[in-house]
Amino acid sequence: MQQLTSILPFLLMFVVIYFFMIRPQQAKAKKEKEFETTLKVGDKIVTKSGLHGKIVELAETTVVIETMSGKLKMERSAISLEMSAAINKK
Q1: How many Å apart are CA 58 and CA 61, to the nearest integer?
Q2: 79 near 47, Cβ under 8 Å?
Q3: What is the distance between the alpha carbons of residues 73 and 63, in angstroms, rounded to a whole number?
Q4: Which of 9, 73, 74, 81 is the most buried (most CB within 10 A)?
């Protein structure tokens, strides 16, 4: 019984860390992966660095966007926001 009471605080800390840190991070990663797979040619996007553009080509892990100054090739993970849906809502 004494062993259980000495281990209980560590188990409780692990449970708290899991529910407040690990689980939300996994959910966020899943949501970002889902977002990356739903991108399509013609979507207007904003990158994590703040560049605005329109998707002209898609590959498995990369994307080519067209900006006012030309075309740029970057990773899909660099895209933070899809603007087409927000623009069409208005």
Answers
A1: 8
A2: yes
A3: 6
A4: 74
pLDDT digit string (tens) for 70-84? 999 999 989 987 776
CB atoms within 10 A of CB 54: 15
Give the pairing type, strands 70-75 and 62-67: antiparallel
In order, the DSSP letters of 17-79 are HIIIIIHHHHHHHHHHHHHHHT--TT-EEEETT--EEEEEEE-SSEEEEEETTEEEEEEGGGE
What average pLDDT does range 57-63 have in this prediction? 93
